């Protein structure tokens, strides 16, 4: 797939799955969504329990765009082996007390992915922790140092017609996140990092069905958009994992491979692309 200008007046869609490397059944669902559906990219957890399985699948699936899913909540440090904080407030407190060096932690995770023979094209963070200034600075430094220029902008574009399916608290949280947009982009620009023109998926996490995806495709703005998703197979490993996203991953997988979704892409003239294809 050739490179295109992200400013072109076309509708370009990157469908990116988080949590590659979390569990083997999540890994398999992600690969299935790519091979059978519209998924174009995923981000790999360097400290995930199924990291080696994900690397194997990545090598077998050369058309799947791979990035880094950088983790500071849940899981364990690759540097110390200690458990990370379990919540955002605890993470912020740990960073403030200098118990955790975000840059060194994220650098080690990126290095492990590179050492596995994978050349990541983009960066994002588990639970969107790069909305916190010290984490954003660390992510941008890692991106600049390793030449990984694309970073997720976790600010949903307006989804007015979908609001009936999105809880009010989720809408309010999304709006509050948007207030950080200006400073967020200022930090990325300082480190020569870039984002897609638009983003979608935060408000739909855990409530992603075929009908919502078809409707979303009809309202995509011109330019490049990243759609975040969490497909997976809900097997024994996922059922035993610490996450609220279990059965919902199966529903997202079904949506991503649904023929109605492929038809909606064509009807709305949406072009699938990976981060590697953006200029």
Written account of the structure:
- With 279 residues, this protein is an alpha/beta fold.
- It is 41% helix and 14% strand.
- It is built from 11 helices and 8 strands.
- The protein has helices at 24-36, 51-60, 88-96, 102-115, 133-146, 168-178, 181-190, 210-218, 236-239, 247-257, 259-267; strands at 11-20, 41-44, 65-70, 122-125, 150-151, 198-200, 223-229, 270-272.
- Strands 1, 2, 3, 4, 5, 6, 7 and 8 form an 8-stranded parallel β-sheet that branches.
- Helix 1 packs parallel to helix 2 (51-60) and helix 8 (210-218) packs parallel to helix 11.
- It is globular.
- It starts with 10 loop residues before the first strand and ends in a 7-residue tail after the last strand.
- The model is unreliable at 172-176 (pLDDT under 50).
- The shape, in one word, is globular
| Model regions low in confidence, pLDDT < 50 over at least 5 residues | 172-176
Q: Helix/strand-derived class?
A: alpha/beta
Which value, in Å, is the CA radius of gyration? 17 Å
Give the biggest beta sheet: 8 strands, parallel
Helix residue percentage: 40-55%
**Element-level helix/strand string:** EHEHEHHEHEHHEHEHHHE
Mean pLDDT: 89
Subunit organisation of the chains:
single chain
- Quote the distance from N terminus to C terminus: 12 Å
Give the percentage of residues in beta strands.
Answer: 5-15%
How many DSSP helices?
11
Q: What is the number of strand segments? A: 8
